[in-house]
Specification:
heterodimer; A: alpha/beta; Rossmann fold; four-stranded antiparallel beta sheet; 8 helices; 10 strands; 37% helix; globular; B: alpha+beta; nine-stranded mixed beta sheet; transmembrane (chain B)
Chain lengths: 252, 654
């Protein structure tokens, strides 16, 4: 397995002289190809800032982030769009689907932006929809489907271009427990069957238990990390809760 | 505290309100300048029936105030949409709805007051320009002088308060009805997209075309009916055409959208999918507005073109019709002495600076009349043209009716020699002269006249006699009726040429330039100015509606553009998409008005072009209409584009 993502001494400060907030103090870690990594931490621990820096939405104050060997921090404004197209897939808490397009068109949008030939698009969309069990809602608009279905559509859109890394920011945050389970199973399946590398930010231990490895952030640093290994998901879930109890977090 | 808050809110939202403010200012400016013009004692004193202009402008001001109040309603919807969260925060903090409403009204009162004052100021400046234009039309010596009138100011304030009051009343009722939950979560609501089927859209489109054809047929019939029934036909035709235009503009964008989405090659090309989604949403939410804007623009463009062309056309014709200050034309073989008493009659009333009495000679066997070279040169001298010379065996043709020139040219090329009383004359080196000398009654009844050497002309029968005069200060309008009275009274005794007889019916014509200006130009000036007033304000209002339609959904759009930004669409591409989206929304309503205007210009040129004595007049004013329209339209488009880009492409976190 090759290294997809590598972070070296990342720091991120906000504010100006005399009033500096350190969102990320000094973080280094790497993610291997096909890994499903969860990032947990209490509010203000820096997890979303970290995700934003990796996803090129925000810039680091110091350090380097390498995605498939490319230093993300050195990418110019002009190169960002192409970099995102070719390397990243996003899943957000509020779905970020376009109300103006159908579910199928929302998925196809990522392909058209990546200049996939028109003839291949419908087939690929149907195939991906099949993987995520949303084939029967392809012609519906986002307002006509449930939150879980919307989020699976967002997942399909994120993965359809086979990006190097899928970034998920609280993907179950707006879903009920049943929809969350279905979505997490889908994400796990994407990881296991399609070999997608996933980095998921969450504050929910249940969601995190679907990952293979969890990084716990506290005050902008990695406090600890735990691996699922050969444990069952239930055992891993217990381990997560233990760490959270230790850090004073727990289930929010 | 609340006043401070209101001021701060205005300062903060200044950028969002700029189009609103500019529209209000322009409306107030145009309203004031036209009202000041319509109520100006100087302008009203120019002719006895100039009050037509006042009436026209007052009626239009009521209509404009009514239309503007709807546009203010749009603006209010936009502003309330932008500030939902802010109002929710006020309510959650315990501020009463009444206080929020008052805060909003105070803010808008300040904006409206500012726009009115600035508008009145700009309008005062503009009134000076309009005043000059009118003085120029009436050929009165003029300098730039602003028109300040308390009455116009009061009227503008009244109309402005009326339109603004209506808009504010609407805003107050919207604020009162809104629930805090809607204010908080309205922007999270999903947008519903749903269109008629392609077949149904095609059928409705075809039906609209059929209705339009029926309207045109009815209009054509109406134009050929001489009774009052024509009004019924024309009114019905206009109604049918407007309904068809409205429905077509509702259906054409839907059809284009559905067709584009049916073709995968087009739909999946580059960012087309996103663009189609954006446009689909616009057509869905603003389809009706865009269709109404189409009708407004159609009315604006036709009114402006017809107003300008008719006004200018009449002026051009009148210049040719009245080149002399006064003239008497009598189709009878009278002696030149007969005209001396007429000249003396005029001399008693105003100073005659110059005059010419001459014959229009009958050319045997030809449908053209002739002038002697000396008379012709005398007329040229009165009009300030240089004299011309021809040799004893030459002739020339004077024709200032441009549409006959080509024909005469061709005839001269075919036959450059004529024989009169046994003498052959050849065409002079410059065979046709075209200065406006008016040849309908004074110099040639057919619009052209033959100019012959004096010796040749004197051998022809002079069966028509003419007297033209150059008067000090151009004479006065009442001179026409005085002259008519004199010629028809027994005071004037015509002296018949020896051996000739008076015809049974003697045709007599009197032209007095001052009268012509006073009684005819006024109507056309009124038409032009009212047309211009209505059309410019309608264009401004239409543009504002389109701008507010776009800006009111700016939050939704920002969200959508943020999605494609994260999907890897570059900033340049996003700018191109914004431009494409706005262009489509701004230019869809132009489809019919522009086609109609082009047809109108071509049709006017074809049907009436020859009636106007100035070549290219229709095309010139067609171009003026389109350019003036484009200038206003593109300014609004540019301003909307600027704001749209600024908000949507607001620097992301990076």
């Amino acid at each position: 397995m090759s290294e997809v993502l590598k972070l070296e001494h990342i720091q991120k400060y906000y504010g100006s002289k005399g009033n500096v907030t350190k969102a990320i103090q000094d973080i280094s870690f790497s993610v291997q190809e096909g890994e499903f990594v969860g990032i947990m931490g209490a509010s203000g621990s820096g997890k979303t800032t970290l995700l934003n820096c990796i996803s090129t939405i925000d810039m680091v104050s110091a350090g380097h982030i390498y995605l498939n060997g490319t230093d993300v921090t050195e990418i110019t404004e002009k190169q960002i769009a192409q970099f995102r197209r070719e390397n990243l897939g996003f899943v957000f808490q509020d779905f970020n689907l376009l109300d103006t397009l159908t579910i199928s068109e929302n998925i196809a949008l990522a392909l058209t932006i990546n200049r996939v030939p028109a003839g291949d698009i419908d087939g690929r969309v149907r195939e991906m929809a099949g993987n995520l069990n949303i084939t029967d809602i392809l012609d519906k608009y986002p307002y006509q489907v449930s939150g879980g279905q919307k989020q699976r559509c967002a997942c399909a859109r994120a993965i359809i271009n086979q990006p190097k890394l899928i970034l998920a920011d609280e993907p179950t945050g707006a879903l009920d427990s049943h929809s969350s389970q279905m979505l997490l199973s889908a994400i796990q399946s994407i990881n296991e069957t399609l070999g997608a590398t996933i980095l998921m930010v969450t504050h929910d231990a249940f969601s995190a238990s679907y990952a293979n490895r969890i990084l716990f952030l506290r005050d902008g640093t990695i406090f600890t990390e735990i691996f699922k290994g050969n444990n069952s998901r239930r055992t891993f879930f217990e381990k997560i809760l233990d760490v959270l109890t230790m850090t004073g977090g727990g289930r929010e | 505290m609340y006043a401070k808050l209101a001021f701060r809110n205005i300062r903060r939202s200044l950028r969002d309100y700029i189009i609103y403010f500019v529209t209000l200012t322009l409306t107030a400016a145009l309203m004031y300048s036209f009202l000041a013009l319509g109520l100006s004692p100087d302008i009203l004193a120019m002719t006895e029936n100039m009050s037509m202009l006042t009436t026209g402008i007052l009626i239009l001001s009521v209509l404009i105030a009514f239309m503007s109040s709807f546009v203010i309603g749009y603006a209010v919807r936009f502003m309330l949409g932008q500030r939902k969260k802010e109002f929710a925060a006020y309510e959650l903090m315990g501020m009463e709805v009444k206080t929020i409403r008052n805060l909003f009204l105070v803010e808008n009162g300040i904006i409206g007051g500012g726009a009115f004052l600035l508008g009145a100021l700009v309008g005062t400046g503009l009134s000076g320009l309009l005043n000059q234009v009118i003085q120029n039309i009436f050929e009165v010596p003029h300098t730039y002088r602003v028109l300040f009138s308390f009455r116009a100011w009061g009227m503008t304030l009244f109309f402005f308060t009326l339109m603004y009051g209506f808009g504010m009343f609407r805003a107050a009722s919207v604020i009162r009805r809104q629930k805090v939950i809607d204010l908080l979560y309205d922007n999270q609501k999903n947008e519903e997209i749903g269109f008629q089927s392609l077949l149904r859209s095609v059928l409705t489109g075809l039906l609209s075309i059929a209705v339009m054809v029926a309207g045109v047929i009815l209009l054509e019939k109406g134009l050929h009916i001489q009774t009052n029934e024509a009004l019924l036909y024309c009114g019905g035709a206009c109604l049918l055409i407007l309904v068809a235009v409205y429905e077509l503009h509702r259906k054409i964008p839907v059809l284009l959208y559905l067709l584009a989405k049916r073709n995968p090659q087009r739909k999946y090309r580059e960012e087309n999918l996103f663009f189609l989604g954006q446009i689909g949403s616009r057509i869905q939410s603003s389809g009706r507005t865009m269709a109404v804007v189409t009708i407004l623009l159609t009315i604006s463009l036709t009114t402006m073109f017809i107003g300008l062309t008719m006004g200018a056309g009449y002026k051009a014709n009148m210049e040719a019709y009245y080149p002399y200050d006064a003239g008497v034309a009598i189709d009878a073989p009278l002696t030149k002495n007969s005209m001396d008493t007429v000249r003396s009659f005029v001399e008693k009333r105003c100073k005659v600076e110059d005059s010419a009495t001459y014959y229009l000679y009958t050319v045997p066997g030809k449908s053209i009349e002739a002038l002697s070279l000396s008379d012709y040169n005398h007329l040229r001298d009165i009009l300030g043209f240089s004299s011309v010379s021809i040799s004893n065996n030459e002739f020339l043709v004077h024709c200032d009716t441009w549409n006959y020139v080509d024909d005469i040219q061709q005839r001269l090329e075919q036959q450059s020699k004529i024989t009169l009383n046994g003498q052959t004359l050849t065409a002079a080196e410059t065979p046709i002269l075209t200065e406006p000398m008016e040849q309908y009654q004074m110099a040639g009844t057919n619009g052209y006249v033959l100019v012959l050497p004096d010796k040749v002309a004197s051998q022809l029968p002079g069966e028509k006699i003419r007297l033209v005069m150059k008067l000090a200060d151009g004479g006065y309008p009442e001179l026409r009726s005085e002259l008519r009275q004199f010629l028809n009274s027994g005071e004037w005794l015509p002296d018949i040429q020896p051996g000739q007889e008076l015809p049974e019916k003697m045709t007599m014509g009197i032209t007095v330039k001052a009268w012509g200006v006073a009684n005819s130009l006024t109507g056309f000036t009124t038409l032009s100015f009212c047309g211009l007033y209505l059309s410019i304000i309608f264009i401004i209002l239409s543009c504002s509606v389109l701008a507010f339609e776009q800006l009111s959904s700016i939050d939704k759009n920002r969200k959508n553009y943020a999605v494609i930004d994260r999907l890897g669409v570059s900033s340049q591409k996003q700018v191109a998409l914004i431009r494409k989206e706005l262009s489509t929304v701004f230019f869809i309503p132009l489809l019919f008005p522009i086609i109609l205007t082009v047809f109108l210009i071509a049709g006017t040129q074809l049907l009436f072009g020859k009636s106007f004595l100035q070549e290219g007049l229709v095309l010139f004013y067609g171009m003026v209409t389109i350019l003036l329209f484009c200038a206003i339209y593109l300014t609004y488009f540019g301003a909307t584009m600027f704001l749209f880009k600024k908000v949507i492409l607001r620097p992301k976190i990076r």
